[in-house]
Amino acid sequence: MNIDLRVEAMFDLTKTIAADIFKGLTYPWEALPKISAFIMELGKTLPADEYEQRGEDIWVARSAKAANTAYLHGPLIICPEAEVRHCAFIRGSAIVGRGAVIGNSTELKNCIIFDKAQVPHYNYIGDSILGYMSHLGAGAITSNLKSDKSLVTVWTGDEKLYTGLKKFGAVVGDNVEVGCNSVLNPGTVICRRTNVYPLSMVRGAVPPDSIYKKQGEVAQKIYDN
């Protein structure tokens, strides 16, 4: 199956403050090494009446809610109306989109969270990109480093795409639902509007508009007209 994993097939770029990071890129994961520097430059341009600067490289929208118990490390941008809940752990190089939810004990590292995406309960998101209105159920995580420490590839079913990255968790497209306690293995790419069953171990590319039940068992969604 030929699965389109290009940036424009995965995301609506009007739904993130980070749209410019994807300019000139073919695949979304090409943005991962650029996130830290991008935040540092973008942060300098954010309006002071809309964003409060906390330290040298942390910008938090005045309409965002960040719990006093949350740990915030830069470079970091938290966009308007986002919510960062109790004991969230943001290690840096993260963009939290407008209206996004970062939940209790959730850890972020080197990632882009699009607008209204939710990782609300005990999630780990490292070296990953989550699209508009995507949602990871409780305990779902991205695994961003292979056990043998080799470079991550993306398996499409027909071919391997070589990313050149040692650390790369997952790319999750717009409106994707990932069930509780699922593990997205290094190099996982889940295309738009797909649902992943709870307790899944996901690897490689999953086509759009599908239901991932387990490895090798993926059903196409049927929509009523």
Task: Please render the helix and strand layout as text.
Layout: H1 7-10, H2 35-43, E1 51-53, E2 58-61, E3 65-66, E4 71-72, E5 76-78, E6 83-84, E7 89-90, E8 94-96, E9 101-104, E10 107-113, E11 118-121, E12 124-130, E13 135-136, E14 141-142, E15 152-155, E16 160-165, E17 170-172, E18 177-178, E19 183-184, E20 188-190, E21 195-196, E22 201-202, E23 205-206, E24 210-214, E25 217-220
Parallel strand pairs: 2-5, 3-6, 4-7, 5-8, 6-9, 7-10, 8-10, 9-11, 10-12, 12-17, 13-18, 14-19, 17-20, 18-21, 19-22, 20-23, 21-24
Antiparallel strand pairs: 1-2, 15-16, 24-25
Explain what the structure shows:
The protein has helices spanning 7-10, 35-43; strands at 51-53, 58-61, 65-66, 71-72, 76-78, 83-84, 89-90, 94-96, 101-104, 107-113, 118-121, 124-130, 135-136, 141-142, 152-155, 160-165, 170-172, 177-178, 183-184, 188-190, 195-196, 201-202, 205-206, 210-214, 217-220. It is mainly β. It has a single domain (7-220), classed as 3 Solenoid (UDP N-Acetylglucosamine Acyltransferase, domain 1), CATH 2.160.10. Strands 1, 2, 4, 5, 7, 8, 10, 12, 17, 20 and 23 form an eleven-stranded mixed β-sheet that branches. Strands 13-18-21-24-25 form a five-stranded mixed β-sheet, with no helix packed on it. A four-stranded parallel β-sheet has the order 3-6-9-11, with no helix packed on it. A hairpin with a 4-residue loop joins strand 15 (152-155) and strand 16. The longest helix has 9 residues, at 35-43. The chain starts with 6 loop residues before the first helix and ends in a 5-residue tail after the last strand.
